Amino acid sequence: MGDVLRELDRKQVISRDFVLITADVVGNADLQEAISKHKKLRQEDRNYILTKVFKQQGINGRHRTQEDQNLVVLDGDQILQYETLDNTHKVNLNSNVKFKGVMEFELRYDLLDTGVSICAPDFLHCFSDNFDYHKIREHVMKDYLTSEIYTDKFSAYILPKHQYLTQVKVPRLYDIVSKDLMNYWLYPISINSSLFPPSNPSNFQHSRNNFYKENHVKVAQSALIEPASAIGAYTTIGENSVIKKSVIGRNCIVGKGVTIVNSYLWEGVQVKDGASIDHSIICNRTVVGENSKVSKGCVVSFGVEINNEVELPPFSRATCFKTQEPSSIGKGTIFKIEEDQELSESYSQQKLEHDSIGGSTDWLANLEETSEESDTSLDEVDQPGSMMSTDQFVSELQNIISSLILEDESIDIMQVEVNSFKFAHNKTFEDCIAAVIRALVETTPEKIETHFNKWGGVLQRYVNKQNEALAVLDELEKTLVGGPFENKYHILVKVLYELEVVEDEVIIEWFSSCENSHLKKLMEPFIAWLEEESEEESEEESDEES
Question: Tens digits of per-residue pLDDT, 116-143?
Fold first, then answer.
């Protein structure tokens, strides 16, 4: 980064405030307010040359990496100190000259750098005047905040909780952000929007349980595609293969009896018969041989060809870099950190495992234990998203949904608001289901079945597993019993069935365990019809097989 900014300053191509975004940033945040705030600070004090955009994330937040253990010290909007904490979680504040004359300040451990900075043109001089500067925080801010010579100031802007912005720095975050994208947490950015350039447009279609598929996909009848998954155009899935919570790119060939779990296959990958891939990333033009196994946490780089009957150890990095010669795995080799002296000084095998898909997050637990033992108390630091109880979350989300219904907003807008609130407070789909059902009942006009038929489809977005579908029926029972709509339970279940929120097997399972005799009596005709339909389908399938 440093060389690029020095070159921009040398050519004098930037004369106004500008936004600097690293290439790994993904999000749907509106930066207009942050830019306006930066400009206002500059009008009041020309010494402000940079505004860092942060997002709030609790101590055990999903988007934290081991590198994100930072302490931000604020005096209002001004950043007084921005430090990486060591294992003891202690920071020396006394050495910082910026504290002179400051009577009160705020310690923030819940802020993550989003990779977005709003800069004044003067900021470029920081790099031009110091040719060994390459990074903003580690070099510029560290030196400028501890120097008596520099008068330049830095400010912080904290994103609203419902806005999404994060850096995809490691494979574990690649997995998390990809799942968020499939769950519409980045709306209006989504898989079934035009993510690809016009020269190579996408045409993903979204169906229930967050399954996405492009045109010209061939899936064998015996293959099983479980939610949430996506399959790109011109890809073939062979017989008896299982795809679960995975993304398969374009022009891929998946053979017979293949198992792919929580993994990402990029374009042009071949997976031969009997192979298995678990919690891994497989890059373009890779070949995985017959009955081979890619264990969890692996990254297989471009053009690697794995022989038949080969097992990659967990958290391996297979690459063709610096070698085109055949090895024990085939074309390519397994990269070892200890063989790279420069890398091994700053990066360990343990950290690589923590950063991988499926890697352990025990360092978060250790972090919590350390914070409790530390002399520097973090208990007083505000940690949004980790303090709200489930009851409070459901109640507040219910109010949000009720307002959206009364304003006659669309289901898509409702989903954005629900996802944003869920993400901000780290709650479950079942908590969201409870809030949606209570809001639907609370805002019901005279005909509740018409109301559910219009708005109930939003529940489909939060039912990916059987326990979540059961949660819909259980919450509906809990909300209606004793109220004016109790006798409409069976009608609403039928509406949700027609909206494909709940399936017949789930309804029958709920019925078998229901202890409310009144509801069971209401449901009996519908259950009888479902069982009859199920028997007819079984007979038709038997006739087809024979």
Answer: 999 999 999 888 888 888 888 888 888 8
| Alpha-carbon gap, residue 448 to 483, rounded angstroms | 12
Question: How many whole angstroms separate alpha carbon 419 and alpha carbon 432?
Answer: 9
Which tokens go with 385?
């998203």
Neighbouring CB atoms inside 10 A of 95's CB total 9
C-beta of residue 314 within 8 angstroms of C-beta of residue 295: yes
pLDDT in tens, 491-546: 999 999 999 899 888 999 999 999 899 999 999 999 998 888 777 766 665 555 55
DSSP lists the bridge partners of residue 281 as 264, 299
Q: Residues with Cβ < 8 Å from 468, sequence gap 6 or more?
A: 429, 430, 433, 462
**How many residues in total does the chain contain?**
546
Three-state DSSP state, 79: strand
Q: Tell me the HSE value of 269 on the side-chain side, using a 13 A CA sphere.
A: 27
Local structure of 448: helix, strand or coil = helix
Question: Beta 211-213 vs 218-219: how paired, if at all?
Answer: unpaired
From residue 64, give the alpha-carbon distance in Å to each of 60, 172, 319, 339: 7, 10, 27, 28
Q: Could you tell me if 284 and 268 are in contact, meaning their C-beta atoms sit under 8 angstroms apart?
A: yes
Residues contacting 149, CB < 8 A, separation 6+: none
Residues 456, 541: Cα–Cα separation, whole Å:
31
| Spatial CB neighbours of 420, under 8 Å, sequence gap ≥ 6 | 161, 162, 163, 164, 185
CA atoms within 13 A of residue 411's CA, in its CB half-sphere? 13
Q: What is the pTM of this model?
A: 0.70
Planar angle of CA 472, 477, 483, nearest 5 degrees: 135
